[in-house]
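Protocol step 4 of 5: obtain the predicted structure for the target chain.
Materials: sequence only (see below). No template structures provided, no constraints applied. The aim of this step is simply to have a reference model before the mutagenesis design in step 5. Sequence pasted as it appears in the construct record:
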Amino acid sequence: MNNYLISSNLAISDNGFLFMSSTGETFTVNEIGKHILNEMKNRTDIEKIREKILEEYEVSEQILEKDLNDFLNQLNTYKLVEEI
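Step 4 output (structure tokens):
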């Protein structure tokens, strides 16, 4: 799985509100999305994030793979992250 870098223009609030200062766009994410973004902000490897989610939440590996890939693709589409 690829790694991503969060845009330096992205602010993440404690309640999952995202603000892209360069465009003025706003987004919201759920608790797991916020968890993923905060881990990414701390430069945690995507594979480590995946492992943590499997440990902390009741989710199958197959569902997590699909949902995580979908989430990362959405972040990439909105230019909130970039692949590294």
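Step 4 remarks: Residues 15 and 34 are 8 Å apart (CA to CA). The mean pLDDT is 93.
Proceed to step 5.
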